[in-house]
């Protein structure tokens, strides 16, 4: 049997470059395991999964589904980590709120919700988009195979992912314990279906990409129905309303305090 030679410190230096260190970006991405899922609808979904730093026997953990925006579409299985999830991956947050973070990537040319963004309103499609349908299957798989708390599954998304967040809670209100749609829009006709799901909506009033009325109309309908909704509108803020939302610890304190309502 061939004997393996020990790796010398010099070899380690050359393996990682002359600096002998891995970049902060590499360390961050390494927290998210790269995976693929072949869906029943034929869609192959790239996704990343961060697990709790430490998992105790018999303990279950929340799952946060993050849906990225249109600019992060592709097939590199990395671009979807650019926004928001980095806040959940900080050492402070991993200790404060141990959780699974699911970050799927929508392929270029597809959407989380197949609607026309140029229109002032939208109707929820009869079926979920292929990427979102595949994402739902991934959640089923994670619940089956990992210590996920089924009563603490959350969805959060920005822009295109904000639309996806609304679509998720409209389509599967019994699955999600809470939602955070950021600069997105939904279909007010379905508000009654998820009136008891806690929702915290964020939007900038100077958004030139997704009109602020898209959030306002959803919030208005939910308030009309006495829904469990909070609305934060940032004055003078354009499309990027996600950075300050994600950096605000109150956002996450609120989210992780939510549990699925049971009949």
From TrEMBL:
Presence of the UniProt keyword Signal in the record: yes
Top-level division of the source organism's lineage: Bacteria
SUPFAM superfamilies the record matches: alpha/beta-Hydrolases (SSF53474)
GO terms for MF: hydrolase activity
Protein keywords: Signal
Keyword hit for Transcription regulation: no
Designated name of the protein: Prolyl oligopeptidase family protein
Species assigned in the record: Thalassoglobus neptunius
Lineage: Bacteria, Pseudomonadati, Planctomycetota, Planctomycetia, Planctomycetales
């Amino acid at each position: 049997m061939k004997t393996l030679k020990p790796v010398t410190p010099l070899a380690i230096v050359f393996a990682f470059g002359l600096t002998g260190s891995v970049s902060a970006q590499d360390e961050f991405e390494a927290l998210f395991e790269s995976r693929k899922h072949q869906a029943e609808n034929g869609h192959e979904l790239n996704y990343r999964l961060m697990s709790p730093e430490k998992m105790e026997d018999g303990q279950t953990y929340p799952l946060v589904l993050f849906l990225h925006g249109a600019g992060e579409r592709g097939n590199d299985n990395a671009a979807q980590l650019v926004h928001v999830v980095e806040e959940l991956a900080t050492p402070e947050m991993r200790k404060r709120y141990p959780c699974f973070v699911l970050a799927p990537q929508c392929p270029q040319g597809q959407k989380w919700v197949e609607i026309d963004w140029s229109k002032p309103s939208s109707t929820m499609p009869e079926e979920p988009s292929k990427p979102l349908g595949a994402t739902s299957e991934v959640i089923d798989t994670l619940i089956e195979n990992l210590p996920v708390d089924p009563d603490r599954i959350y969805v959060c998304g920005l822009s295109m992912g904000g639309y996806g967040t609304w679509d998720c809670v409209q389509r599967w209100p019994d699955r999600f314990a809470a939602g955070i749609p950021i600069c997105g829009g939904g279909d007010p006709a379905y508000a009654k279906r998820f009136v008891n799901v806690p929702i915290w909506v964020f939007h900038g009033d100077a958004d030139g990409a997704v009109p602020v009325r898209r959030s306002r109309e959803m919030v208005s309908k939910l308030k009309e129905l006495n829904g469990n909704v909070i609305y934060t509108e940032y004055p003078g803020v354009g499309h990027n309303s996600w950075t300050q939302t994600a950096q605000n610890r109150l956002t996450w304190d609120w989210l992780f305090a939510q549990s699925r309502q049971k009949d």
